Amino acid sequence: MTFTENFEGYELIPANIRSQVLKARIAMYREWGVDIMDEETWQKREDLLESLEFIKGNLTTWIFGLGLEDGGLDFHSQFETIRRPVFIKRKGSKNVEILDSLCIPTYTCDKEFRGKGLGIKMLQAARSKMQELCSVSILHSDVGSGFYSRYGWDSYPLISTKISVASNQFEKSNDTLFFNKELARIISLVDSKMLRTDMSRAETNDSTVISVVPEFGHYEWRNVRDNFEGQNCLNVKEFSENYGVLYCGDQTEAILRSKFSESLLDGVAPECPSFIMWTHRFKENSLLSLRARINHIDHIVPLINAALQEAKSCSLSKIEFWNFQTEFLGFLEEKFNVESIVMKKSLPCLALFDKNPDEKIEWLLNEQVSFV
Ligand SMILES: CC(C)(COP(=O)(O)OP(=O)(O)OC[C@H]1O[C@@H](n2cnc3c(N)ncnc32)[C@H](O)[C@@H]1OP(=O)(O)O)[C@@H](O)C(=O)NCCC(=O)NCCS
C-alpha cells in the first residue's frame, strides 16, 4: 500500500465483496483471536455467528483506504458495526422512542500502519458516516477515553465486581429457578417492556436517558460464541443449558409463565421478576452476568447463591458483574467476599450525534448487555 500522509483519495465504504470481508476478519483475528485459535477456526466462528438473529442483516464491515481505479480499495484499517435498537427519552420529553443504534465491536489498523494518523482519520470518517445513518453509537474502548472522545463518544465509568466460588459459602434456595434458552427469550421480552414502561414513568426533566434494548438475540450471540470457544479451543466437554436464574419466591414455573404471557399483552403493565442472565465465559474462567435485574434487595442473596452454584457445577471459579446496580453494590459487598475494580479497559462510550451542548446523558443498563 502506498501510504499518503494527507490521506488524499481515502474512502470509507462498507465491504461489499466477500474477499474484503474475509481480509478485514483476518485483521481482527490477528488482534483478538490469535491467542486462542487458528485462523480457520476464527473464520468458522464468524460464519456461525453471522447466522444468528443478532448479527444477520445487522453487521456491516467498514473498510477505509485508498480508492483504486478498478473500483477496489487498498485498505489496512477496518471496523465493524452491529445495528441494534435503543430506547431513548430525550430531555424534556415524555415519550420513550425506539431507535436504531450502530455499535462498534471491533476497530483496528494493521500493525505496520499504526501511529501515522490512520486510526484517527478513519474515526473522523466513521463519525460523518454514522451521523448520516443513525443518532446513537456505542462502543467499549480499550484505548482509554481520549481516542474516541475526539469525535463525540463520551466515556462512562465501569466497575467490575467478581465473586469467587472458593471464598464464599452458598447453597441454592427454593426461591430461585434456573431457566433455559426458551424461557430466556420470553423473560427478555418482559424485561424490555418493563424497562420501557419504567423509563416513560420516570421523572427525567434534566437529562436524556438512553438504554440498549436488552434483547434475547444478544444473550444468544454471547452464549453461542463462548460455547464455540469452549468446544473448539478450550476442550470443554460439558455445557449447561441454563441461560440464567430468576427469583420466583413461592410461584411455580407455570404461574410465572402465565404472568409473562399476560405481561406481554398490549395495554398491560408488565411484571418482570428479578433475574440474572449469563454466559459461561470459559476463556475467563467466569460465569459472566450479561444482565441483572434486581427488583428488591432481598432477591440478591438467593440469586447470587444460585449463580455461584451454577459456576461451581460448570467448573468456573467466579461470577462477574459489570456495573452491578449501584444502589445494591454496598449490600453485595457486605454479604459476599467480592473484588470490585474500576476498569481501565472496555470503557463504555456513547455518542448521541445530535446532542445539544448542555444535554446530559444518563446511560441505563450500562452492563455487559451493552457490550458487543
Ligand atoms: C487504536 C488504533 C486503531 C489507533 O490507530 P492508529 O493509526 O495507531 O492511531 P493514530 O496514529 O491515528 O493515533 C491517534 C491518537 O490516538 C492515540 N492512540 C493510538 N493508539 C492508542 C492506544 N492504544 N491507547 C491510547 N491512545 C492511543 C495516539 O497516541 C494518537 O494521539 P495523539 O494524536 O495525541 O498523538 C490502533 O492502535 C489499533 O489498531 N490498535 C489495536 C486494536 C485496538 O486496540 N483497537 C481499539 C479497540 S477499542
TrEMBL record:
Transmembrane segments: none
Domain of life: Eukaryota
Domain LYC1 C-terminal: 173-369
PANTHER family linked: LYSINE ACETYLTRANSFERASE (PTHR34815), N-ACETYLTRANSFERASE DOMAIN-CONTAINING PROTEIN (PTHR34815:SF2)
Protein name listed in UniProt: LYC1 C-terminal domain-containing protein
Organism field: Smittium mucronatum
